[in-house]
Amino acid sequence: MEIAEKSEPNTSLRRIDETPDAEFLLALGFRVREARARRGMSRKMLAINSDVSERYLAQVESGDTNPSIMVLRHVADALGISLMELIEPPPDSPEYRLISRFLEQLAPNRLEEALLRLLRDFGSEDASRRKRIALVGLRGAGKSTLGRALAGELSSPFVELDGAIETEAGMTLNEVFMLYGQPGFRRLEQRCLQDIIARYENAVITVGGGIVSNAETFNLLLMNCFTVWVKASPEEHMSRVVAQGDFRPMQGNTEAMEDMRRILVAREPLYSKADFTLDTTGRQAAECLVQLRQAVTASKSAITQ
């Protein structure tokens, strides 16, 4: 059924003379005309394809009416462009249009990867991001040991996200989980990470391995920090935790090692999004620190060249 001009409220058929509304509607009309011209499409053909009357399209293109969002959606679909391109036009450059078309063709699961690569490789944001070093991974990989040592060598603050969460909550992590559950903990984790990023321009930060379970929080980390996945074999993860005096992973669970393997396998695609991977399996802390420092130094020098 054709969307005719009479279906619009009477007030929308009058020219809106108030600025900036009038300027917006004139610009909107220009974008419709321009998009139609690029496609060699007559107004009559656009009317047929969009199911909007030709007379009403003439009013839209001249800025004489305030079209509803549904009308704009029909017009955008008929023109083969996004609704946002009509409402908020992109920068007028062929490069931007090519990039936009390329991103539109990517599968949804690849868009996140494309975004992260753009953020990491271009712009002043990358220089700022690389001043914060974030170590992520399961407990027992060596994050705290390496993080403290690296912070000392770089003369940077050392910040533990788990410690910031406990300070903010006024209780231990276990108590936070018991009282608020995992959803409440993840919300607090995200808020504390946002505070750390806002507070520290330079820092070495350690975060819990479970941060990857919240995509929004993990992306926040990746976009604002040079991220290092500190990994180890399941056996070393477990032995180091036990060596620290914590026997809870082994108590009452004969399948603890198998659980550890499953966690690592499930999270590996997420941890692999980090800028650098440091495997500490069978290695001394001093040796790992040298490799970590080299990776960080190379990262910082790359953006100054």
Write up this protein.
Helices cover 61% and strands 8% of the residues. It is built from 15 helices and five strands. It has helices at residues 21-38, 43-50, 54-62, 69-79, 83-87, 94-105, 108-121, 124-129, 143-154, 161-169, 173-199, 215-224, 234-243, 256-271, 285-302, and strands at residues 132-136, 158-160, 203-207, 226-231, 276-279. It has a five-stranded parallel beta sheet, with helices on both faces. It is elongated and about 80 Å long. It starts with 20 loop residues before the first helix and ends with a helix.
Would you spell out the secondary-structure blueprint of this structure?
Elements: H1 21-38, H2 43-50, H3 54-62, H4 69-79, H5 83-87, H6 94-105, H7 108-121, H8 124-129, E1 132-136, H9 143-154, E2 158-160, H10 161-169, H11 173-199, E3 203-207, H12 215-224, E4 226-231, H13 234-243, H14 256-271, E5 276-279, H15 285-302
Parallel strand pairs: 1-3, 1-4, 2-3, 4-5
Summarize the structure.
With 305 residues, the protein is of the alpha/beta class.
Structural features:
single chain; 305 residues; alpha/beta; 434 Repressor (Amino-terminal Domain); Rossmann fold; 2 domains; 5-stranded parallel sheet; 15 helices; 5 strands; disordered N terminus
Low-confidence stretches: 1-17, 247-252
- Strand percentage lies at 5-15%
Strand order of the largest sheet: 2-3-1-4-5
Examine the secondary-structure arrangement and name the CATH architecture of the largest domain.
3-Layer(aba) Sandwich
Q: CATH homologous superfamily of the largest domain, by name? A: P-loop containing nucleotide triphosphate hydrolases
CA-CA gap between termini: 60 Å
- What structural category arises from helix and sheet content? alpha/beta
Order of helices and strands: HHHHHHHHEHEHHEHEHHEH
Count of structural domains: 2
CATH level 1 class label of the largest domain: Alpha Beta
Can you count the beta strands?
5
Largest sheet geometry: 5 strands, parallel
